[in-house]
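Tutorial, part two.
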Amino acid sequence: MEATAHQAESSKIFMLRLPRKAAVLLVLCTVVSFCSLVNLDAQDAPRRPGAQTSATDTFTDPLLQAGPDPWVIWWNGFYYYSNSSGKNLVLRKTADIADLRNAKKTVVWTPEPGHPWSNELWAPELHRWGNKWYIYFAADAGKNASHRIYVVENSSDDPTQGTWTLKGKISDTTDRWAIDATTFEVQGQHYLVWSGWKGETDGEQDLFIAHMSNAWTIDSPRTLIAKPTYSWETHGDLPGRHVYVNEGPEALLHGDKIFLTFSASGCWTDFYSIGLLQASVTANLLDATSWTKFDQPFLSTDAQSHAFGPGHNGFFQSPDGKEDWIIYHANPAPNEGCGNFRSPRIQRFTWNADGTPNFGGPVPIDQPLAKPSH
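Running the prediction step on this input gives:
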């Protein structure tokens, strides 16, 4: 929730950072609903002395001071970035993703109060479908249990321009709790993957997939393709109970394989990490047996790099299309939970001989990195 991110997707305790001009405040959320994501204007605070500027060929992580559930897409010479704000949908537009702090920021859609989609907007993802833009996000009516997936549409070529219109809720026939939706196309077919509950109560978040007939409609039953089973996926103690978490799925196609990364364990723990599912592009992706989960995380906490609880990632390529990059959020210190200490980081990744992605370990913050190639 990733999430969200995120988000205390399920129920959790969060610690949020307020602007420096305000007094330091610790916000304790109930385990029934998630704290509002506040103070994301702190993202625009000046960088630490010594950080690289856009005038150089290098940059340093993090890209922003805060930015849970980061997402990036490239279109017509620009990157478009989003993250969870809790209250609206915001896009940043830049030709230089490494200089995200100085990117133009636009609030593209704000929900009216009083609707099922008016509160706790989590994990927005911008996708191009045909000749229109769509942003998928989770929202609720005021309580976490009402979280569902919604989508807005825009026909402008530039998603920071034009008008965004709510197309509605996206749900399979069970209409269960759902967050962290992503969509992808394989063999000409479109799919939606998300994190949800099997039943009507919290306690375990699983990954589900369904087929899509258009950008806002699911036309198949949902299929459960992953649930927390390995020890590194099952950290999630909360006062008086435990929550198991698989969330934040993201698709990555490479050769004849499709990979789904996901975030495992509670984001309120430092065990939050990125796992991986794999399937053949020619397989029936709605058949759970088509998917194989790897038994170890592919990116996890690295204290020396000041990357605690790395997760809820996305993928993008360099402007010249020659480099593969991952974006994810992580906390700079231990025990900082699911609030706005989480900051977006990017790093280049490669591919192993067996075709799986090699993300390496989290790159230390303030370590100079070459910018994506042009």
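Confidence is low (pLDDT under 50) at residues 2-39, 45-54. In part three we will examine how such features are distributed along the chain.
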